[in-house]
Amino acid sequence: xxxxxxxxxxxxxxxxxxxxxxxxxxxxxxxxxxxxxxxxxxxxxxxxxxxxxxxxxxxxxxxxxxxxxxxxxxxxxxxxxxxxxxxxxxxxxxxxxxxxxxxxxxxxxxxxxxxxxxxxxxxxxxxxxxxxxxxxxxxxxxxxxxxxxxxxxxxxxxxxxxxxxxxxxxxxxxxxxxxxxxxxxxxxxxxxxxxxxxxxxxxxxxxxxxxxxxxxxxxxxxxxxxxxxxxxxxxxxxxxxxxxxxxxxxxxxxxxxxxxxxxxxxxxxxxxxxxxxxxxxxxxxxxxxxxxxxxxxxxxxxxxxxxxxxxxxxxxxxxxxxxxxxxxxxxxxxxxxxxxxxxxxxxxxxxxxxxxxxxxxxxxxxxxxxxxxxxxxxxxxxxxxxxxxxxxxxxxxxxxxxxxxxxx
Length: 408
Fold this sequence. Notes:
Blueprint: H1 2-12, H2 14-23, H3 29-51, E1 54-57, H4 61-81, H5 87-105, H6 111-120, H7 129-134, H8 150-169, H9 176-195, H10 198-216, H11 224-242, H12 244-257, H13 263-275, H14 282-295, H15 305-310, H16 317-345, H17 352-369, H18 379-390, E2 404-407
Helix pairs in contact: 1-3, 1-6, 2-8, 3-5, 4-5, 5-18, 6-8, 8-9, 8-10, 8-17, 10-17, 12-13, 14-16, 16-17, 16-18, 17-18
């Protein structure tokens, strides 16, 4: 169980490991990605086979059915789009980032060890302190020398979220090295808030609210106080969205008044002043997506169509699903994701470990996928999908569905 848990942690912390390799200019895109995904799986199964340990296989008909459904969509798109389409690229992505991680979560694992494994990968920052703490990794060369680029911001975010989860829920079992990781991530949080990109900053805010909610409803019961505060937070969020430009200006003026510098706020304000909006050119891409959706709303155009036509992806996983699969074929995926969100709030039906694991996966994948990154090549997205499918209710005992005991 331990080795598998830590290997899942490595898959989730995939980006920070990639960033470490990038810091030494050793990154070879296809080879590095394949090794990063396959090595943890291979190591786990080698250990299981070597120890001849009896393993409870976590697999059910829903997971198999969903996998076959995705294969059907990929094969169907390939047949419709033809051999020159981008569908084959997504077949590769689904295999590497979707099915390979599935091989780990069908084996028993402990959420505490997974979270700890993710947190401890933050110690990789000490392998290249200048890159992680002092260099400018942003494409914007006019910014401060300490700015974190998008890739590094999201990589750091994963470790920061895992460390906060571990500190809140599992610190009673912390070892000396965990306290080193706590301090390391405290520094990374400060760096992320001050110099991280806007998407990572927003993801952190969403995570903190959900973390607060789970902690307050840890016993599975909701109080009037929790519900009231949640309603207030959601209402404030809606107000911010509806009055975004006005609030942005006021925030920026107050930050300048107190001589406070937050890169994510400054960049947003700069885009608003220069372009009249804050989407950094994404409105054009979004309009392209809307056009495809309107033209074929129910069945889409097939997987890979957006990349074929426009040479990029929609920068929003919901729009990409609707473009490629339409409402009909993308509906099962949206239902699973909605269920995962509901499971965070349903403390009376699911164990704390289960809710914490979903919180981790959700916070590091879904907010980002609304602004950047393709869902096909996001391991945490597929882990979230499959864990939601195989996750039992609290009455089943623990957070793993067990169908049979098998000696591998």
